[in-house]
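Researcher: Sequence of UDP-N-acetylmuramoyl-tripeptide--D-alanyl-D-alanine ligase follows. Predict its structure.
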Amino acid sequence: MTLWTAAQAATATGGRAVGDWSCDGVSIDTRTIEAGDLFVALKDVRDGHDFVAQALEKGAGAALVSRVPDGVAKNAPLLIVEDVLQALERLGQAARARTQARVVAVTGSVGKTSTKEMLLAMLGDQGRTHASVASYNNHWGVPLTLARMPADTEFAVIEIGMNHPGEIAPLARMAQADVAMVTTVAAAHLEAFENLAGIAVEKASIFEGVKPGGWAVLNADIEHAAILMAKAVDCRLRDLEFGVHGHHFKLLDVQVQADTTVVQASHEGAPILFKIASPGRHFAMNGLGALAVCHALGVDMALAAQSLGRWQPYRGRGVREVIVLDPVDTHMTLALIDDSYNANPTSMAAALAVLAGAEVTHDIGRVSKGRRIAILGDMKELGTGAEALHAGLAGLETTRALDVVHCVGPLMRALYDVLPDHQRGAWTETAAELLPDLRGLLDSGDVVLVKGSLSTRLGTIVDAIRKMGHPVETP
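Model: Prediction complete. Tokens:
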């Protein structure tokens, strides 16, 4: 289906189209571009204009550029604009304006990507649903997501992130959401904010982009919930609060089992029971918030709860895998929890709670006792108190329940130094330095959590663990 014609794209951006072309997708990366995509030559680490010729060779339908790049014919299918990023923004705004879709905007210090994926699963069973890819939630990710939205979309879920003040509101206005949700406010990107209240103010600014009469869905359990509530009132939105202290969607009980989370809640007194096919109290909270969003949209709540029950996290976001270490004796396994994409103190505490509650298997490896093992990398962008926040993880009850903690990164040295001897594993400055010893540190029967900020490259450790055997689906 055609997403953009040359004439439509030129009108939306105010640019000049070369040729009479059409595109059925939008891409910013020649590594993943598909035939028929509109290639957007953004300037980031590299100038996208350097890759236009390659994009066209790979079958791109056209390229969005501010000049004709070297090696590209003057009659090549192009859309020439003054500023590529501004043109992408206008393309996204035009895509939003032409659709009748009901749009959800999601932000939060923790859980926004998982919640976005939950909503994609829940709404996808009730209509044509479009959502952000991966964590495309920044100044180019939001307009790119909008520009990719087909005109016949019925529901859209737009993830909005930030790492500095003033970033969320313009992106929220671009999305023009019917419902906006804040999953939580936590110590993330603290180096750019004076305190947690400042982060709450920034997160609350997502409500500035909600259409008049829309909904604000917010976590009532967080320290600065009042800031979110006041902003919703200022924006004249209807609010839905979720959580243990939620007036509308109240969390009553969470039972975390080996591979399932069972949740009891209520909506204004009416009972709600739902399951999530992955362990974690934080998933229960996100799921309850997602159900509140579905209520605001007026969709079938019973069907939404069923769809939520089939959702599972994906790689880097808490997905659990079983790694078979012996191809002959398939009982020789370890469990891997891959949470390597991001980390801050709140998400780290949630992941450690999952590991502390995990079931190990004894008497199947060279070490007779199955162990709960954490491989933890630096939590970045925490500001001047970063070392104290890392060291503070040792005091968590869930950390004390673990058998071994391995630490990666300069900041994680602070945790390593205060761990008791019986828990202290290895410390390395980089993930690469841990790799040669990895096989000797793990054994059959263990449950292993890998978590840290993306820049610590703990994904290489996850990949190495996977290569130790053959991943199979959990039963």
